[in-house]
Amino acid sequence: MKGIGGSHAAEQLATITPWATPAAPITQDERLARIEQARRLTRDSGADALLIAAGSSLRYFAGVPWGGTERLVAMLIPVTGDPVMIAPHFELGSLQAEMQISTDYRLWQEDQSPTALVADMCRGWGADTLAIDPALPFLFVDRIARDAPALTLVSGAPAIDGCRMHKSPAEIALMQQAKSMTLEMHRRAALILREGIRASEVVRFIDEGHRKIGGAPSTFCMVQFGHGTAFPHGVPGDPQLREGDMVLIDTGTTVQGYHSDITRSYVFGTPDDEQRRIWDLEHAAQGAAFAAAQPGHACESVDQAARDVLEAGGLGPDYNLPGLPHRTGHGIGLSIHEPAYLVRGDKTPLATGMCFSNEPMIVIPDRFGIRLEDHFYMADDGPRWFTQPQVAIDAPFG
Fold it and tell me: Transmembrane ranges (predicted)?
């Protein structure tokens, strides 16, 4: 079992050091350029202003890593003029400490309506149409509609996705660091495997390793053995590893908010003929998807390329099992799943800067599943891997 077993968690953790070449943070100039692009795309969509909700999009434009709550924190961007932050008055100091750009502030007290504030600003600007972040909870959308009945509300997805789908070199560098760190934790996790180890021990090891190597705690970590690998997102419990089990580990971290999300599948022990055959089909499908990711081609064509390989191997068709039960991949960046998607029906043309997972999982019901997940970004002349795919079922790391 090349690269599997032979060590233990304490030994591996003792040799993990912080990442030697951390990627540079996103600059203020880049954030301001994003806002200018959002203005242009908002104008092109026929709207007069764009409302950005707390969450990954607010982080993208302003550097504020806050999630949404029942208190409205948002940024309103007019197509002409400076952006305005809307927030509770008591949060001003904390918000200013996080902001990576200069903005005006419109603050509200606990007994005041923040959506009325949004409505008043739009009226003051003479705005007729407001584009709203699709991630803004309906609670606030409904209140804006009641506070400003003359205001037309439309989706802000054309502006937000139009910016966020196309990553800059600085974003790609941050994602490269996150993915490289996670791949290193995969390599080390394989080394601590032993008969009888519980999945929870591996999960704890990967989380601690992600922290030591310079990332955030694991954003998620799924460790499945044997029968559990046949479920794309696993099953509850804390299984123990046995000889001959398929191992499936899917995990990730973040670097300055940018995600990694990598899966490795291999056997603890000697693979049988069926495990080898299915692993080889999975590897071929992942390779076909990568080769199909050419500039200008529709996202759905990548999904179809993977399915063609699996169907030729006697699996499927479509989402039928044994076969591939889900899409081939998803966009990734400040959100772990974000547009566009490598799935039938998504006709978004592939273009420079787009970043995707490539994970055409194969499920053999009641037996095992194999998912190989690496990510790629689109260069001007085609796809580039962030991490090199697994080379063999019994040599997962070369």
Answer: none
Residues 229 and 358 in one domain: yes
CA angle 339-345-351, nearest 5°?
Answer: 50
Q: Could you tell me the residue range of the domain that residue 283 belongs to?
A: 166-385
Q: DSSP state, 240?
A: B
Give the tens place of pLDDT for each residue, 310-364. Answer: 999 999 999 999 999 999 999 999 999 999 999 999 999 999 999 999 999 999 9
Residues 360 and 239 in one domain: yes
3-state secondary structure of 290: helix
Amino acid at 67: G
For the stretch 98-151, pLDDT in tens is 999 999 999 999 999 999 999 999 999 999 999 999 999 999 999 999 999 999
Residue 346 within a domain: yes
Angle, CA of 90, 95 and 96, to the nearest 5°: 110
Name residue 99's amino acid: M
Give, for 271, the enclosing helix (H) or strand (E): none
Burial (0-12, 13-18, 19+ Cβ within 10 Å), 125: middle
The verdict on residue 22 lying in a domain is: no
pTM of the model: 0.97
